Amino acid sequence: MGLSYKILPHYTYEDYCRWEGQWELIDGIPYAMSPLPSVKHHHVSGNLYMLFREALKKSACNCKVFMPIDYKVSEETILQPDLLITFKNILDQKFIAEPPELVVEIFSSSTALKDLNSKFHIYQNNRIPYYLILDPVKNLIEVFELDGDSYSKRISGTNESFLFSFKNECSFEIDFSQVWIL
Asked: Which domain holds residue 122?
């Protein structure tokens, strides 16, 4: 462990609950979630939420889509994916404590490194079946699917469609070209 890590303050979920504003906590280190994302980020996020919500309504899947909500990985790691899908009934909870089935991060220049590295490995290590990364500047989506112990990139493009299939025989297709429509 490096010297700089030893002298950095270390925070927990209890500390996190007292903070004002929007934060994430990764291995005890806080990350401010401000300033607020761009207008295009919000637009893409809203479109994606509606696409997933409509696909889930049409499917036989008994799951819910949320945006953003705390995902408490551990006492020292609390993440706020832009969108997640879970089969768990969490409507009466403050956060999700079990790994969701799918997480989405819509990154900006200030979050790209964290989304592509730290969060990627956390989601992979927690065996979340699908991790989606969207770049609203390039209109690029990448879908990663858990294959054994690691993620495999299934698509990378702008106007791709993808069929999501889960262990409980739940499946639905998303046409990602609809995410970018203004």
From this structure: 9-180
Residue 160 in any domain: the answer is yes
Tokens of 170: 């739940």
Q: Quick: pLDDT tens for 22-52.
A: 899 999 999 988 777 788 888 999 999 999 9
For the segment 87-133, what is each residue's pLDDT rounded down to a tens digit? 988 888 899 999 999 999 998 877 788 888 999 999 999 999 999 99
Residues with Cβ within 8 Å of residue 102, at least 6 apart in sequence: 84, 85, 128, 129, 130, 131, 132, 164
Q: CA-to-CA distance for 75 and 26, rounded, in angstroms? A: 10
The residues facing 24 across adjacent strands are 31
Single pTM value for the model: 0.92
State CA 65 to chain mean position distance: 11
Any long-range contacts for 162-171 (C-beta under 8 Å, 24+ apart)? 164/102, 164/130, 166/61, 166/87, 166/101, 166/129, 167/129, 168/87, 169/60, 170/59, 170/60, 170/61, 170/62, 170/63, 170/87, 171/59, 171/61
In a domain, 96, yes or no: yes
